[in-house]
Specification:
Blueprint lengths: L3 E6 L9 E5 L9 H10 L1 H14 L7 E5 L7 E5 L11 H18 L4 E4 L11 H18 L5 E6 L2 H12 L1
Parallel strand pairs: 1-6, 2-4, 2-5, 5-6
Antiparallel strand pairs: 3-4
Length: 173
């Protein structure tokens, strides 16, 4: 069975999946946007595990991913990844963003997860243009799923209508 990729317009904190992905900062210190919403909805257990990871390894570098509890969220786990800050596209942003998606999926596959939900990484305060970010995300996910059949469903959870239309078009195309 081929993995199913879908885009939905919704709130990632309400998604039932083996893992949801958090667009975190490198300090794993909580923040605004998706990061803040996940920490608020999931409760203090998520931050407690982020604190432990920060003490053990100093945080999470851009493009990498770590896993914590999901606390009170309906997902089983949260995969925290750090996307790049947009600097005009000439500073390796595309590679770093692809790594964020690929490493998140790798953590999910290592844990035997079959369903993963992603936000639109780096497109908020990090300023990555939505269309360019969506192309990287969909391409990277499709390539990963082609060689890793264990993940059966990937959902791009789009907070705004514009992103939903972009992702839907790329997935269908």
């Amino acid at each position: 069975m081929q993995a199913r990729i879908e885009a939905i317009h919704g709130d990632i904190t309400r998604i039932h999946a083996d893992a949801i992905v958090n667009a975190a900062n490198s300090r794993l210190a909580g923040g605004g946007g998706v990061d803040g919403a996940i920490h608020r909805a999931g409760g203090p257990e998520i931050m407690e595990e982020c604190d432990r990871i920060r003490q053990e390894q100093g945080g999470c570098p851009t493009g990498e991913a770590v896993v914590t509890t999901a606390g009170k969220l309906p997902a089983k786990k949260v995969i925290h990844t750090v996307g790049p800050i947009w600097q005009g596209g000439k500073s390796g942003e595309e590679k770093l963003l692809a790594n964020a998606y690929r490493n998140s999926l790798s953590r999910a596959a290592e844990l035997g997860f079959q369903s993963v939900a992603f936000p639109n990484i780096s497109t908020g305060v990090y300023g990555y243009p939505k269309k360019e970010a969506a192309h990287v995300a969909v391409k990277t996910v499709k390539e990963f799923l082609d060689i890793n059949p264990g993940i059966k469903k990937v959902t791009f959870v789009c907070f705004d209508e514009e992103s939903f239309k972009i992702y839907s078009g790329l997935i269908k195309g």
